[in-house]
Amino acid sequence: MKRLLTILSAMLLAASCAKVPDDGIVIVDDIDSPTPQGQPQEEQTEEQEQTQSTVLKLTECPAPKGGNSIIVVNKDDEYGINYFLEWDCDKRAQRWTAYQMHKGNSASNVKRSNDEAWHEDEQIPDEYRSTYDDYRYSGFDRGHICPSADRLQNTNMNYQTFCYSNVHPQYNSLNAAIWGDMENKVRAWNNDSFRDTLYIVKGGTIDKKDQVFDFKTQGSYGVVIPKYFFMAILCVKNNQYKALGFWIEHKKSYSDIEGKSIKQYAVSIDQIEESTGIDFFHNLPDDIEAKVESELTVGDWNF
After folding, report:
1. CA dist., res. 285 & res. 232, Å (int)
2. Contact 136, 119 (CB under 8 A)
3. How far apart are the first and last CA of the chain?
4. Which residues of 283-302 are buried (b: 16+ CB within 10 A; e: fewer)?
5. pLDDT digits (tens, 9 = 90+) for 287-296
6. Residue 279 buriedness (CB in 10 A; 0-12 / 13-18 / 19+)
7. pLDDT tens, 172-224?
8. Please, what is the angle between helix 286-294 and helix 269-276, to 10°?
9. Do 181 and 193 touch, CB atoms closer than 8 A?
10. Is 272 exposed, middle or buried (CB count within 10 Å of its CB: 0-12, 13-18, 19+)?
């Protein structure tokens, strides 16, 4: 499955992520290197076309913003789709990461990879990808978006979470504390009595000027530092749907909230959509989408 899924030639993709189809979507699959410049364009195989169609129709897939962005899919030979994300080439940052949690992918068969597992995303052309240098001596953690602890099914799936396209710069006070508490709560919901499937979309704000800091991790270069982080979570159990979001400001200290529950950061999906401009769970039937995204019943979520 290690092939490049794209309807553009690798030459155009490497030259400029702005040269994408009208819908702004390019699908990249696994980690094979792009075709060298000057090589003829390969036509999509039936399997590649099916992967693209499948990803865009998944319940957890937001409506891609497109433009200068690409969709990157991480797959595993044994399991299939591990997680996928939208990468903004201009900003050299991810807009969101989406994945599922259910009985079939939640076994803890392996230990979490160590720091030697960090690697660049070879699916993204060199000039647009994030690297170790973006974070070195920056004062920010490499904050997983799809957490490694959510992907312990096998070694490859866990390794894939240590890719620089799956992180945002985070203050340690967020990453090692309240963000981790939120992720632990999601894992607590990931049990058979609570869900059949959790559909999860997470990320940091990168699109609006008032939602990013006025600097990057390394002076004039580096990656965008979001001012807010979000989680959008859809739970399906016995064909019943409910949804909840988290919205939190990215700051150096959270001493003012010590001893308080993370449920104070719970918001409706509609609120996150209004703040970010991202259309979550748009593949649901319209009536179900409207209901679950507007409602927020915190008592249904076992805080």
Report:
1. 17
2. no
3. 40
4. bbeeeebeebbeebeeeebe
5. 999 999 999 9
6. middle
7. 999 999 999 999 999 999 999 999 999 999 999 999 999 999 778 887 778 99
8. 90
9. no
10. buried
